[in-house]
Write a structure and sequence with these properties.
The complex is a heterodimer of chains A (about 375) and B (about 550). Chain A contains 12 helices and 17 strands. With about 375 residues, chain A is of the alpha/beta class. Chain A folds into 2 domains: about 10-50 and about 145-215 and about 310-365, FAD/NAD(P)-binding domain, CATH 3.50.50; about 85-145 and about 215-305, D-Amino Acid Oxidase, subunit A, domain 2 (D-Amino Acid Oxidase, Chain A, domain 2). In chain A, strand 8 and strand 9 (about 190-195) form a beta hairpin. The longest helix of chain A has 14 residues, at about 145-160. Chain B is built from 17 helices and 22 strands. Among the domains of chain B are: about 10-55 and about 95-155 and about 290-360, FAD/NAD(P)-binding domain (3-Layer(bba) Sandwich); about 515-548, no CATH class. Helices cover about 25% and strands about 20% of the residues of chain B. The longest helix of chain B has 17 residues, at about 345-360. In chain B, strands 1, 2, 3, 4, 5, 6 and 19 form a 7-stranded mixed sheet that branches. Chain B has a 5-stranded parallel sheet with strand order 8-15-9-10-11. Classes of the chains: A alpha/beta (about 375), B alpha/beta (about 550). At the A-B interface, helix 4, helix 5, helix 7, strand 10 and strand 14 of A face helix 1, helix 14, strand 22 and helix 16 of B.
Chain lengths: ~375, ~550
């Protein structure tokens, strides 16, 4: 369907994060008339505020995640800084035992991992402690640069004729005869045949306008970045309760530790600020890489992240309105984005995902969720 | 009443709740910066019986100065600065009121940098009250405060030309600080870039301190600062070069030995036949003095470009209060204008006004005080936004060669404007229609440009390139300088060693419930074992889990 330049699009995607942009790209590359609406600047939410990990072996999208990342630069035509493989260092027996799950999940799906002793860890990771407990070398997964990847999706989708409007906030969604037909924004009205809502925490209030309840809560998390250091042979190294990577430039970018639950409304008033949690992250990074404990921290960042009650995604084409697809990856969206975008493409065009079983990421698993689930789970601001 | 008492449910054990670090030091009023404004604020507040802590990062360790922090010192620190005691003595001498402050009962902490202000707010409330992150050479620690007056001073705008990475190319304010606060500027003959009042004032102070100002270089067709300041320098031998910019700093590993100036046309084009070489061992960047707003911006205070205040400055009310009611800004970080720069009186008055407002906010008695009349900046005599654009146009864009704007990450002007990915990626292809930082005015966000090109992402935290990049983007997009958003500042606002940052104490609960992500067992159950239904009541909350 061909519409006027500004009147609308066959598919409107609300949300210019990695999930929405990837979906837009997958649709556009097949010649679908797609328009992505972003309230602010692309990747300004959790998509640009994460560790860049691409190793989600628990997810039904894992196989596709692993298949796509190594070819993503070529598919998109722009660099993502993807680097394969991941090493995780355990500093004690408990960490060693917990980190084994990735090996087991990987093996279940046909991926190989190695168990590392202290000597092997030291050989692979020059900044590691003299006597780590052990570690794992997962021959899958990896890491990429979130900002570069967000931009790559946005450019690639436009190269295929898709459109992107930034600074365009959605104010309402109008329905007719059981379908979402029009999106009202701060920059006018846009008609659509199909609608995708991939708007992070805003997915809940937007879905609520359609009478659909999407249980979400937001939290703030933070990371720190050091000055560039000599690049290690494998940058995808974390552990000791941290996630992150050494970037190709050489900076150590790591996060972890406790998060702070926040009210959605409060997040609209302010950007996410770092706190002194960065000191605790620094402490664990010093333990992980004691040989570079003198490196200087030169910045930090914080982000607001949405989570479903069980932390699992919601990826579903609704039955009513039947032309609406809801997507939240629940705090684990960056690495899965090549696959989640393709899944959304399938849901929009074919009504079902052809390459993965999405039965465990549907909304109806919350049919019996308690109304006060946030209180029951203690997911309330620290001062509440 | 706690959450658990009220609801019968425990807070999420993986959240920050209950894990706030111990805060040993407390104060009613924290004053950051012991220059004229901060000192006046501290003394005025102490007079009213308020508990005051006054911190100042000077003396800054020599090694830190070598990393161009907090100013662009250009490696021109005298060897004597290695003697910590002698340096401390110099700093004390240049701040005669420090003794008075101590006598007044003020807790004075020198050599102590504030690397972050952490207000208590709805999205960051796990630590009770407002805290500041402090660090000296041995440790980092937290200080809880009720009110804070920021008097963080100023910084110099950088300007790229061939050879600007040489030792001796430095900020004008940095030279002033080395000469006048530290008595340790290693320079004999300087060329001054910029002829605004702030530059000329510094030039005169340096001349008085024994540094010969050989030349003053101004891109405009006439000098823009006060005649008497200019004439005082000229009468002592300084030559004035209007319609000129620096084309190249000449020298070797020891630093600048000479500078080559080019005469420019009205459009900034360099006239190849009108080059002048001047011998000097320091090249002072005085083209723009910048309010040091990094603590204010990173803590969330509203900032806007205000030509009357010298660029991006905090939005203030009549009592010097920022948009965050317990944070005040005084002195140069609150705004820089000519009459304020010519002495310490206005800065001190701002300090007193803020102190009195803070005293009132703390509930201390302020008997029969007349209402303080607010400090109003000069009506700007110059268009600083266009001046800065003109400097960058003539010096950077019209230079015979592409200029390295970001020294830390080695990103050139052409690379910034073309949004080129950093060279270490080895990405040979160009970006076609997307290879422009300025094709979409809405997309020309300095933060986006920074992330894609890495310009401004280096160890000096963008101190030397931030304003140039914004000017470059404005020139490229053909828009006004103030039309572009400000790139955000982040804590720590001073580079801070990992092991120093890690020295803050932790409560045991932090270690007991530390996980890399949300610590939710259900999040990581592999999809082939995921249960069909989920309820909060049935969730497994006590399983040992490591987020993946």
């Amino acid at each position: 369907m061909n519409r006027g330049a500004t009147a609308g699009a066959a598919v409107i995607v609300i949300g210019g994060g990695v999930t929405g942009l990837s979906a837009g790209w997958w649709l556009a590359r097949e010649g679908i008339d797609v328009l992505v609406l972003e309230a602010g600047v692309i990747g300004w939410g959790a998509s640009g505020r994460n560790g860049g990990g691409c190793s989600h072996h628990h997810s039904p999208l894992f196989l596709e995640e692993q298949r796509l990342w190594p070819q993503l630069d070529e598919l998109l035509g722009y660099p993502t800084e993807f680097q394969p493989n991941r090493i995780r260092i355990a500093l004690d027996a408990r960490q060693f035992q917990l980190y084994r799950r990735a090996l087991e999940n990987g093996a279940h799906q046909g991926f190989h991992s190695e168990v590392l002793d202290a000597k092997q860890v030291r050989e692979l990771v020059p900044y590691a402690p003299d006597a780590p407990y052990g570690g794992y070398f997962y021959h899958f997964g990896g890491h990429a640069n979130p900002h570069r990847t967000v931009q790559a999706y946005a450019w690639a989708l436009q190269d295929h004729g898709g459109r992107l409007l930034q600074h365009t906030a959605v104010t309402d969604i109008k329905t007719r005869a059981g379908k979402a037909t029009q999106v009202s924004t701060t920059r006018g009205e846009f008609a659509c045949d199909q609608l995708v809502i991939a708007a992070g925490a805003a997915t809940a209030p937007l879905a609520a306008r359609l009478g659909v309840s999407v249980p979400l809560a937001s939290a703030r998390a933070e990371m720190i970045v050091t000055e560039p250091l000599a690049p290690m042979r494998i940058g995808g190294v974390d552990g000791n309760g941290l996630y992150g990577r050494q970037t190709l430039r050489g900076n150590l970018a790591y996060g972890g530790g406790p998060h702070e639950w926040v009210e959605y409304e409060d997040c609209q008033q302010t950007r996410a600020h770092s706190t002194v949690l960065q000191s605790s992250i620094a402490r664990r990074l010093c333990q992980l890489f004691p040989k570079v404990a003198h490196a200087r921290v030169i910045r930090s960042w914080a982000g607001f992240i949405e989570n479903t009650p069980d932390g699992r995604p919601i990826l579903e084409r609704l039955s009513s309105p039947q032309n609406v697809t809801i997507a939240t990856l629940s705090s684990v969206g960056f690495g899965l984005s090549p696959a989640s975008g393709r899944a959304i493409r399938d849901l929009v065009i074919e009504g079902t995902c052809r390459f993965a079983d999405l039965s465990t990421v549907k909304l109806d698993r919350f049919a019996h969720l308690e109304a006060d689930w946030r209180v029951m789970q203690g997911w309330l601001p620290a001062g509440a | 009443m706690s959450l658990s008492e009220e609801t019968g449910y425990e807070p999420d054990p993986a959240s920050v709740t209950g894990k706030a670090p111990p805060v040993h030091a407390q104060t009613d009023l924290l004053v950051i910066g012991a220059g004229p404004a901060g000192m006046a604020a501290a003394l005025a507040a102490a007079e009213h019986g308020v508990q005051v802590t006054l911190v100042d990062e000077h003396p800054v360790p020599l090694r830190t100065m070598g990393e161009e922090v907090p100013l662009h010192f250009g490696g021109r620190m005298a060897a004597t600065l290695g003697n910590r005691n002698a340096v401390l003595e110099s700093v004390l001498q240049s701040h005669p009121q420090l003794a008075e402050a101590s006598d007044a009962g003020i807790d004075v902490r020198l050599g102590t940098a504030v690397w972050g202000l952490f207000p208590h707010r709805p999205t960051t409330q796990w630590i009770s009250g407002h805290v500041a992150g402090l660090a000296d050479e041995e440790q980092a620690y937290l200080l809880r405060f009720k009110q804070v007056i920021v008097a963080a001073g100023r910084r110099d705008m950088g300007l790229a030309f061939t050879g600007w990475q040489l030792p001796g190319v430095m900020g004008a304010s940095a030279a002033y600080q080395l000469a006048c606060t530290y008595e340790g500027l290693q320079a004999r003959t300087a060329v001054l870039l910029g002829s605004g009042d702030e530059a000329l004032l510094i030039g005169n102070a340096l001349q008085d301190a024994g540094v010969r100002i050989a030349a003053i270089v101004e891109q405009a067709s006439t000098a823009v600062g006060a005649t008497h300041l200019l004439e005082r320098l000229r009468s002592q031998g300084a030559r004035l070069f209007t319609s000129h910019v620096v084309q190249q700093a000449l020298g070797d590993a020891d630093g600048v030995a000479a500078v080559r100036l080019a005469r420019i046309e009205a459009d900034g084009h360099h006239d190849a036949d009108e080059l002048t070489t001047i011998e000097c061992d320091a090249l002072l960047l005085g083209v723009g003095v910048i309010p040091a707003i990094e603590l204010l911006e990173s803590s969330g205070c509203d900032i806007r470009f205000d030509a009357a205040r010298g660029g991006h400055a905090p939005v203030l009310d009549a009592a010097q209060r920022t948009s965050i009611p317990f944070i005040y800004a005084v002195g140069d970080c609150a705004g820089i204008w000519s009459t304020k720069s010519q002495g310490s009186a206005i800065a001190a008055r701002e300090g007193v006004i803020a102190a009195r407002a803070a005293v009132r906010a703390l509930g201390a008695p302020l008997a029969d005080a007349p209402a303080d009349s607010p400090v109003i900046p000069d009506v700007p005599a110059r268009d600083i936004a266009n001046e800065r654009l003109a400097w960058v146009r003539a010096t950077v864009l019209q230079a015979p060669a592409d200029q390295m704007i970001c020294q830390c990450e080695e990103v050139s002007a052409a690379e910034i404007l073309a949004l080129r990915p950093p060279r270490y990626l080895g990405w040979g292809k160009d970006f076609g229609p997307h290879g422009s930082a300025v094709s979409d005015p809405l997309g020309t966000h300095p933060d986006v440009v920074k992330r894609l090109t890495r310009a401004g992402m280096g160890a000096c935290q963008g101190r030397r390139c931030r304003e140039q990049i914004t000017a470059l983007l404005a020139l490229g997009a053909g828009c006004a300088l103030d039309a572009l958003p400000l790139a955000t500042y982040r804590v720590p606002v001073r580079p801070l060693r990992l092991d120093l940052l890690a020295s803050l104490p932790e409560v045991p609960a932090m270690a007991a419930h530390w996980d890399s992500w949300f610590g939710m067992a259900s999040q990581w159950v592999p999809f082939w074992r995921a249960p069909p239904q989920y309820t909060a009541a049935a969730r497994g909350s006590n399983e040992s889990v490591a987020s993946e």
